[in-house]
Amino acid sequence: PPVIRREDYRAPDWLVPDISLDFTLDTDRTIVTARLSVTRNGAHDRPLLLDGEALELLSVSVDGVPLPRDQWPQGDAPLSIPLPGATHNIETIVAISPARNSQLMGLYASGGLLCTQCEAEGFRRITYFPDRPDVLSRYSVRMEADKALYPVLLSNGDPVESGAGDNGRHWARWNDPFPKPCYLFALVAGDLACNADSFTTMSGRQVKLGIWVRESDLPRTQHAMKALKDSMGWDERVYGREYDLDVFNIVAVADFNFGAMENKGLNIFNSRYILVDPETATDLDFDAVEGVVAHEYFHNWSGNRVTCRDWFQLSLKEGFTVYRDQCFSADMGSEAVKRIEDVRTLRAAQFPEDAGPLAHPIRPESYMEISNFYTATIYNKGAEIIRMMATLLGHERFRRGTDLYFSTHDGEAATCEDFVKAMEDGGGIYLAQFRLWYSQAGTPRVAAVLSHDAESQSATLTLSQSVPDTPGQVNKAPMVLPLRTALFDRQSGKRIEERLLVLDGAEQSFMFEGVRAAPMLSINRGFSAPVIVDMHRSPDELAFLAASDDDPFARYEAMQLLMLGALTEAIAGGEADNGAVIDAVRTALSNPALDDAFIAEAVRLPGEAYVGDQMALVDPDAIHVAREALMGEIGRALLPLWREVHARTARDAFSLAGADKGARKLRTVALGYIVASGAEDGPALAYAQYEGAHNMTERQGALAVLASIDCAERSQALADFYARYAGDALVLDKWFQTQALAFHPDTVEIVAQLGKHPDFTLSNPNRVRAVYGAFGANQWAFHSADGAGYALMADLILALDPVNPQTAARMVPPLGRHRRFAEPRAGRMRAALEQILAQSGLSKDVTEQVSKSLA
Ligand code: B3K
Ligand code: ZN
User: Fold this and answer.
1) What's the CA-to-centroid distance between 702 and ligand 2, angstroms?
2) Residue nearest to atom 1 of ligand 1 (CA)
3) Is 184 in the pocket of ligand 1 (CB under 6 A)?
4) What is the atom index within ligand 1 of the atom nearest the CA of 299?
5) Given a cut of 90, is residue 666 above it in pLDDT?
6) Which of 746, 801, 796 is nearest to 776 (CA)?
7) 512 and 521 in contact (C-beta within 8 Å)?
8) Is Hydrolase among the key words of this record (predicted)?
9) Closest by Cα among 734, 674, 737 to 709
10) Residue 574 pLDDT grade (very low, low, confident, very high; cuts 50, 70, 90)
11) By residue range, what is the domain housing residue 763?
């Protein structure tokens, strides 16, 4: 496939200030008439180029004159029209088939609905158009459909007119006054019920809010509605951003490639990020709904009002919007726990990406298929880059920067450079070197050495940084790393000083005065920079920080390091000091000053994949054995305490209050330790939690614990769960996912069977992710030494590619980590990749991911 390069960007030759779209909707054959007013952009004599894909062209005319057929494009080639004047009117009529659109890009059918997904390049599957984000148009949309099948007709902007037609058909017209790129176009037609509400903006305007779902799902939309209203208020308070249309609609659909989509005034959501209630959704699901609703809403400013010039700038809207939704969720719940969760996600998804063959900077230089760049790097590392600017600037100056960014670029398609410039001009800071974060890939490593001089009563912290080589990038320059750092007195345990150190050279020393005795170091507090810190700290020191550091993230981090130390030692065959870990866990469990949610985070062992990331070469079996052993030991050593915690965290009734959510989280962690201890009543206790649960958090938590052990209760609970929730796709996803994530010795075989289950389908991305996405994240099972896991994944990718290439390509990265594993695994992973690449007719999505993974 051809490679698109950032340096090749050229402003569009033709602009399209206005477009009117007319849809005659039908699931098998929809007719789309598009009328474009086009204007020449600058002095040139190049033709108008309109992208199109999988379109059946029925007619095209220029200023009312039909274009001769010999000038029509072949296949998916663009429609090229030479034009003499400065402005022209183009009309095209095409036919498309929503029912046969299994890629879920463009206009497609999902559970009786017709809906769209256009980002990044799906609009070209609806009509001929310059499908690039820097062409902004005012849209006027008319839809006509069978009234019985599609009683509700929605599009962007405001509804303007509707009426009845012949033969049981009806129509509606919508106008969007805000010029927008075509990736923000949306349309929905279907039999939908509405949770209607309203919001009064800060200037006193009434906005009609609607969440549209199947009638039977209405009771599950309350949390999303609350999240929407909370987000609208938060963006006014924190960023001064007010909503700008009279209506804001959200539609939930079952088949969706991504989480959700921020189409102007008409967000379309994967139903899993809208539909929650305590019986069918976990607390994590509730939090995800809140976070994704906020994320899409926040895009109205960071993404829609100010959009991206080209797709290389994707992190401009995604990194910033993730940062915004992270801060929102922190404000709505526990800031400390939210930060821990976000860092865990970054380390689980982004650090491995940055260390592997698919590493790319947050502003990539090239791509074959842009869909492959909706990555943890663009999103989550992108958010960390914004967070660092906010840290360097402080709250007020950061706000001045964002105000300037929004006011300068409102209505424009902007670049990452525009954002950084606004931070400089508005915030009064010089970010020249900081810009390296946009161009250099790889996770920087910081080595820290702390020394103390008794005579001068000073401590010196020497920091050095290195940025690893990544594909196409070697010998990188030092970056700007804001490291929140504190020193603690060893005797009193008191904090001596906290400072924001900015490491911007290869090596620098920082002096602390008035330090009487050799202090303890707490560094990268709050995870102020997305880096890996290497330094030696004794188990004693870590135990102190785990118990007493006044930065909650640093406390969590010290605990993780303590546990990692014990695990690494055991994996290397040494005698680990598990006593220190056990003491630290006991201390955390018995500290009345800590809330349950934080305790649950602190006492959980690092995941197997994260342990693997610390090793030169990953040994999945040794990691699994060591981690299970440590978990068993902690379980046994503190068994009475775990039982007490498990009993103490039981609740008679359900509530979403933070304390109750924390209790539920800790309860299942405690259950895991009790079962790991080998206590005879472990499985029965787990089954009792499973059966007695009045909410999905505890029920699925118990199911997950049971899924990893061989016992009668395991099959009993799985069978019960399946029967209990038959017909509820979102809950059934949990049934699939829990088994694919389990530490059962037969997981590979179980996953193979799940892939043949009657409820498994390649046409629903949630289901594919529940089985194979989860399986790829299950290090021990996926990397089974015989290569059976790799073969299973390769077969899935090959089967899925012709159906849904975007989702197929997302399954490739776990196979690409072969450099991290020894033989025979490494060779077997490469063999699986080669087997995929040998397939003829492979999509460019999968081709790009596989060929880069093999390079
Ligand atoms: N902007 C969408 C991305 C969907 C594109 C999928 N290829 C979701 C989001 O980040 O809000
Ligand atoms: Zn987004």
Assistant:
1) 33
2) 261
3) no
4) 11
5) yes
6) 796
7) no
8) yes
9) 674
10) confident
11) 730-855
